[in-house]
Amino acid sequence: MPEYSSALKAFVVLMKANKTLEEVIKKDISNYGMRTSDFTVLEALYHKGRQTIREITEAVLIQTGSITYVIDKLEKRELLQRSACKDDRRAVYIQLTPKGEQLMEEIFPKHQQVIEEIFSDITEEEKETVINVLKTVGKKGEMML
C-alpha cells in the first residue's frame, strides 16, 4: 500500500476539519431557526452594510439562483429589504431592516462565541499561521481553476 505524502495528509485533515466545522456551525445556526444560507446573507449585510445581490453572492459563495430565493425568504420575514440603485437601474441594493439588525445584534455575539470556543485551545500565533497557510492554499487552488 502506498504511503500518504504530507500534502495528502494535510488535505485529508483539512477536509475532515472542514466537515466537522460545517456541522458545528449548521447546528449553532439552526438554534436560531435558520439555515446556513440565511445566516450567511444576514451576516454579510450586518458586517458590510448595504450590498448588491452580486456583492452578496461573491461574499457568501451561494449561487446566483439560490441567492434570490434566500433573499426572497428573508424579505418575507422582514429581515431585509430591497431598494433600487439610482445610478444603475439594473442593480438592486439589499440591506437589513431594523428587525434584521436587531436579530443579528442578538444572535451574532452568541454565534461568535461558538467560533471562539472552537479556537480556544489554539494560541494567537497558531491562529495567524492557520490563516496564512489557508490563504496560500486557497490562492494556489484559485490559480488552478
UniProtKB/TrEMBL annotation:
GO biological process: response to stress
Domain of life: Bacteria
Gene3D superfamilies per the UniProt record, alphabetical: Winged helix-like DNA-binding domain superfamily/Winged helix DNA-binding domain
Annotated ranges, domain HTH marR-type: 7-139
GO molecular function term, any single one: DNA binding
UniProt keyword list: DNA-binding, Transcription, Transcription regulation
UniProt KW Ion transport keyword: no
InterPro entries referenced in this protein's UniProt entry, alphabetically: HTH_MarR-typ, MarR/SlyA-like, Tscrpt_reg_MarR-type_CS, WH-like_DNA-bd_sf, WH_DNA-bd_sf
Annotated PANTHER family: HTH-TYPE TRANSCRIPTIONAL REGULATOR MHQR (PTHR33164:SF56), TRANSCRIPTIONAL REGULATOR, MARR FAMILY (PTHR33164)
Name assigned to this protein: MarR family transcriptional regulator
Source organism (scientific name): Compostibacillus humi
